[in-house]
C-alpha cells in the first residue's frame, strides 16, 4: 500500500498463501477473529453474571451456524435471487458445476442483514432449548456483535469489496483490483462506526448491568442499523437492480430493524420484569 497523488493505492492480495486448491484469506482470519474476540468478551460477561462457560459454548454454536446460514441465504435471496432461484443447491454448497466439472467457489456472497436475521432465529431456538430468557441473551450478545462486524468489514477491505463511491477527499482509496478511481473506504467507515457502537454499549452495560429487558438490544438495533443506513450513501450499489432505487437494498432492510429497536427502547417494562431475570 502506498500513497500517490494524495490518495491511497490498495492492491494487496486477499490470499495470504495457497496449498493446492486451498487458500487462506485475510477475510477468513478476520471472520475467525470476530468470533474469538466475541467469545472472550462474552465469557467475561457470563462469568460476571454467574453463567457457565458450557452455556456460552452452546450459544456460540448456535450463533456461528445462525450467522453463516443467515448471511449466505440473505445474500442469495436479497441480492441474487434470479440466479440462485435457478441454482438452489449453490446456496448451500461451496462449489458449482462448470462444463460437467466441479469448481470450488466457497461461499462467495454473505449479507449482514441475513446474518442478523439468522442470529435472531438462532437466539430464539437457543432460548427455547436452554430455557434462558431471550431478551437476557440478546441484551448481552449485542454488546459484542458490533466489534465482530468491524472485523468482518476489515476483511471486506482486504478483499477490495463493498467499495465506496468516487471521492476527491485525501483519504480516498484506489482499489486497483477494481479500477483506478479514488473511492471512499466505506468498509473502514463501517468498521470505525461499529467500534464506536461497541464502546457505547460496553460502557452502558458496565454502568448498569441490569437495564430494562431489551433496552441494550434496542439501542444496538437503532445505532448499528442507523449507521448502516447512513453509510450506504457512501457506497456503490452491490447489484445492478439497486441503481434504479432511491434507497438501496441495504437501507431498506435496515429500516425494520431500527423500528424494532425504537420499540424496545421506549416500551414500558413489564411489572416484575427485573425479578424474572
From TrEMBL:
Keywords tagged on the record: Cell membrane, Lipoprotein, Membrane, Transferase, Transmembrane, Transmembrane helix
Membrane topology note: Multi-pass membrane protein
Any GO CC annotation of this UniProt entry: plasma membrane
Residue positions binding a 1,2-diacyl-sn-glycero-3-phospho-(1'-sn-glycerol): 153
Enzyme Commission no: 2.5.1.145
Coiled coil: none
One BP term from GO: lipoprotein biosynthetic process
Enzyme class, broadest EC rank: transferase
Subcellular location: Cell membrane
Pathways per UniProt: Protein modification; lipoprotein biosynthesis (diacylglyceryl transfer)
Matching InterPro entries: Lgt (IPR001640)
TM stretches of this protein: 26-47, 59-81, 106-126, 138-158, 186-205, 212-229, 249-266
An MF annotation (GO) of this entry: phosphatidylglycerol-prolipoprotein diacylglyceryl transferase activity
Pfam family, one: LGT
The protein's role, per its UniProt record: Catalyzes the transfer of the diacylglyceryl group from phosphatidylglycerol to the sulfhydryl group of the N-terminal cysteine of a prolipoprotein, the first step in the formation of mature lipoproteins.
The family this protein is said to belong to: Belongs to the Lgt family.
Name of the protein described by the UniProt record: Phosphatidylglycerol--prolipoprotein diacylglyceryl transferase
Species whose genome carries this gene: Sphingobacterium gobiense
Source lineage: Bacteria, Pseudomonadati, Bacteroidota, Sphingobacteriia, Sphingobacteriales
Name of the gene: lgt
Amino acid at each position: 500500500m502506498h500513497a500517490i497523488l494524495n490518495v491511497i493505492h490498495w492492491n494487496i492480495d486477499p490470499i495470504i498463501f495457497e496449498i493446492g486448491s486451498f487458500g487462506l484469506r485475510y477475510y477468513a482470519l478476520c471472520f475467525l477473529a470476530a468470533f474469538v474476540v466475541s467469545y472472550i468478551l462474552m465469557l467475561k460477561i457470563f462469568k460476571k453474571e454467574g453463567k457457565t462457560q458450557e452455556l456460552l459454548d452452546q450459544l456460540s454454536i448456535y450463533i456461528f451456524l445462525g450467522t453463516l446460514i443467515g448471511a449466505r441465504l440473505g445474500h442469495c435471496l436479497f441480492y441474487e435471487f434470479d440466479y440462485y432461484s435457478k441454482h438452489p443447491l449453490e446456496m448451500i454448497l461451496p462449489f458449482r458445476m462448470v462444463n460437467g466439472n466441479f469448481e470450488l467457489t466457497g461461499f462467495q456472497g454473505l449479507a449482514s442483514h441475513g446474518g442478523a436475521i439468522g442470529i435472531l432465529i438462532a437466539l430464539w431456538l437457543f432460548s427455547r432449548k436452554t430455557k434462558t430468557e431471550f431478551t437476557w441473551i440478546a441484551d448481552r450478545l449485542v454488546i459484542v456483535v458490533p466489534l465482530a462486524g468491524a472485523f468482518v468489514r476489515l476483511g471486506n477491505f482486504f478483499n477490495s469489496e463493498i467499495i465506496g463511491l468516487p471521492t476527491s477527499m485525501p483519504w480516498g482509496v484506489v482499489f486497483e483490483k477494481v479500477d483506478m478511481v479514488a473511492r471512499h473506504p466505506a468498509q473502514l467507515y463501517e468498521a470505525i462506526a461499529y467500534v464506536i457502537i461497541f464502546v457505547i454499549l460496553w460502557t452502558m452495560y458496565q454502568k448498569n448491568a441490569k437495564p430494562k429487558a431489551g433496552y441494550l438490544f434496542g439501542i444496538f438495533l437503532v445505532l448499528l442499523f442507523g449507521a448502516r443506513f447512513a453509510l450506504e450513501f457512501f457506497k456503490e450499489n452491490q447489484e445492478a437492480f439497486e441503481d434504479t432505487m432511491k434507497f438501496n437494498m441495504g437501507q431498506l432492510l435496515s429500516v425494520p430493524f431500527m423500528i424494532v429497536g425504537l420499540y424496545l427502547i421506549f416500551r414500558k417494562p413489564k411489572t416484575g420484569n427485573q425479578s424474572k431475570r
